């Protein structure tokens, strides 16, 4: 019996065996902190602003969206949760959708500190 000589993906392609055993999470967002606020940018092409639901609940930002293309008989959904390490001024959160990018700005409460404790790194 000869061993396959092609790349792994080609000889496993028709076996029903996944070519990648460990899926890496999709990198469809960017999160950073600047000027006392968190800025979250999420790539969500193909949605209309009214199809996107953004909600805040005690330190967790929830983003959900659903788009139904009746002409193609396809449904597209998106759901992701983000937990924030600092207290956010929830009345001041703003979300804007432009060119397939959802940008959410979450102002940090003044004097808010990161929850948790410092962990010492051992050598």
From TrEMBL:
Instruction: Identify the species of origin.
Output: Halorubrum xinjiangense
In terms of domain of life, where is this protein from? Archaea
Query: Lineage of the source organism?
Result: Archaea, Methanobacteriati, Methanobacteriota, Stenosarchaea group, Halobacteria
Which SUPFAM superfamilies does the entry link to?
HSP20-like chaperones (SSF49764)
InterPro entries in alphabetical order: A-crystallin/Hsp20_dom, HSP20-like_chaperone, Small_HSP
- Record's CDD domains? ACD_sHsps-like
* Record's protein name: HSP20 family protein
Q: Where is the SHSP domain?
A: 20-123
The family note in this entry says: Belongs to the small heat shock protein (HSP20) family.
